[in-house]
Every structure is written in structure tokens, then in C-alpha cells.
Specification:
about 170 residues, Rossmann fold, six-stranded mixed sheet, three-stranded antiparallel sheet, 3 helices, globular, binds inosinic acid
Length: about 170
Amino acid sequence: MLGRTVIEKTEIDEMVGRIAKEIEKDFGPGSPVFVGVLKGCVFFLTDLVRQISSPLEIDFIQVSSYGSGTSSSGTVVLVKDITADVRGRDVYLVEDIVDTGITLSDVVEMIRARHPRSVRIVSLLSKPSRRKIDVDIAYLGAEIDDVFVVGYGLDHAEQYRNLSDIRELIPESE
Ligand code: IMP
């Protein structure tokens, strides 16, 4: 069941605009690659890059974290690889939410293996209280408490991604 609104669309737009400005200020030479981690990144990535006027490339990676329910198990498997040649380029890894940090730390390793000049993490949300592996988030929208959220790309069992606001999901048993 959908619960309270955690972040309204207007706040999301402000966060995205702020992150875009911060990133563009730090742009190095050459065209960077924005790699979205599917599927949760879709709306965030497309909104973010349209706020940036400098040349850039977009690409996607998809991993699956085997486990059940609302937490990942720790085994991250590559489902769809990037196609861009990232060697010697700046990579911005765009994620919807960093929870335990397990997924992203593995994805960072997968990207680093292709010898980019840099890899920086851009995440809309972070749940620091749930962290098991420390990940360095270079650009962050907002920290949230340990609640399960859906909307603006975030899902539960593939549902709710299309909501404009970010809402809390209340488990059916409660
Ligand atoms: P981590 O490996 O535990 O950091 O999990 C990261 C992934 O779990 C995210 O990319 C999301 O797909 C998913 N996830 C974690 N927390 C939430 C949430 O509150 N709502 C929806 N998906 C979540």
C-alpha cells in the first residue's frame, strides 16, 4: 500500500537541477559518459542530462541482485553491459538509490576494469543507516531514513516506477 509522500516532484526537480549544476562545474576535458544503472535510473538520468548543456554520452548497465523481498543478497550478476568505450574518459555512474552499497560497489569495479579516467557516483537518494559497504557518492540528491520508497523510477516488484512523487511503500501485513 502506498504511504506518505517522502519527496514531492517539485523537490525532485530542484535536486536534479542542483546536481546538474554541480556536475557541470566539475566537468573535465573531453566528453564524459553518463552510465545509468537500469532500471531505476531512467527518469533521473534523462532529467539530469537535459539540464546539462556540455557534450556528453549516455549509456546503460543492468545488474541483477539475487535475493528476495526488499533487500539484496550480495550476489550481483551482470545482465546488460555498457557499449560505450570508456577508456580514458570520465564516467558518471547514475543510480536511483544507494542502500547497502553492495550493488554499486560491484558496478564501480565492473566499470573500473575498462580503465576510465575517473568514475564518480551520482545518486538521487541514499539510506546511510543501511550501508554495509562504504561507497563514495560524489553527487547526492538527499539522504532518507530506512523506509522503502517507490516512484520516479523506484519500484517494488516492477510496480510504481511511473509515480511522479517518491512515496513510502507500506508492507501489506502492517
Ligand atoms: P544496494 O545494493 O543494497 O545498495 O541496493 C541498491 C538497489 O536496491 C537500488 O538500485 C534499488 O534498485 C534497490 N532499492 C534499495 N532500496 C530501495 C527502496 O527503498 N525502494 C526501491 N528500490 C530500492
